[in-house]
Structures are given as C-alpha cells and as structure tokens.
Amino acid sequence: MPNQSPQAQALTTTAADVRQQLSLAGYGAEEVAHLGRVIDAQRRSLAPAEREGFCTAVGCYLGECLVRTYQGEWAAGPDGTTGVGIAGQLFFNPFFLVKEQLDKGAAASVAAFFASVPWRLAERSAAQKAKIS
User: Is residue 68 included in any domain, yes or no?
Assistant: First the structure.
C-alpha cells in the first residue's frame, strides 16, 4: 500500500501474517465471519497471558479488512488509540472489537459489526445532511 506510515505498514504486515496463518482468502465479509468463529473458539481456551497478543494480532487483521473493504485508513483516534478511520466520518478500534467478542461472545460479534459499517456510514451521512439543511 503506497504512502503508509511505518506504523500502518507494521499493522498491515501483521494482518497479512494472520491471514496466512488462518488460511483466509482475502479481507472481506466472509473472512471476517470466519474470524468471528476463530474468536469464539478461543474464548474459553485462551490463557489470560495470551489474550493481549491475540487481540492485537487478530485486531490487525480485522482493521485491515475495514481498510480494504470500506476504503479506510489506519489512524489515531481522538483519544490517541490506533484504529481505522473511514470516510473522514467514523473511527473504529478493531482491537477493542476483538476484545469485546472475546469477552462477550456472539453479542459482540465482529462479523455483525463489520456488516453494519455501510449502515453506520449512511446514517452518519444522513445526519450531516440534516444539519446542513
């Protein structure tokens, strides 16, 4: 990817490593659904000492899926956290999203979140148009 910061390059490289380890074909909704199943499979068996590393690695992959599918970019959020900005309107922390599914299960599904992004963008755009009118 052209013009990436060194941090974004590192995140993208980690995402590619996770993709390869999980034998995923790409960075789309089908792969995110599989990722959700991987997270669920790890919920009860992942040792506490491994959780942070798991959330970081899997979060890199989820973030890269957001970048590639929704034309986002790796960025720093308003609170300084690393995440993905989309269309200059939304910011998501993929590491937090992975942690939430790891903690809460299907109620915090990364696949459901991923599928909701177009709706979130449309809702945000409609709200901005209403403010202008």
Answer: yes
Give me the percent of the chain exceeding a pLDDT of 70.
91
Task: Provide the 3-class DSSP secondary structure of residue 8.
Answer: helix
Please report the pLDDT score of residue 4 as a whole number.
77
| pLDDT (0 to 100) of residue 133 | 52
Domain that holds residue 25: 6-132
Spatial distance between the Cα atoms of 32 and 122, rounded to a whole number of angstroms = 21
What pTM, to 2 d.p., does this model score? Answer: 0.91
- Which pLDDT does position 1 carry in this prediction? 46
Please give the Cα distance from 128 to 133 (Å, whole number). 9
Residue 35 lies in a domain: yes
Q: DSSP states of 67-123 as a string?
A: HHHTTEEEEE-TTS-EEEEETTTEEE-HHHHHHHHHHHGGGG-HHHHHHHHHHHHHH
Domain count, the chain: 1
- 89 occurs within a structural domain: yes
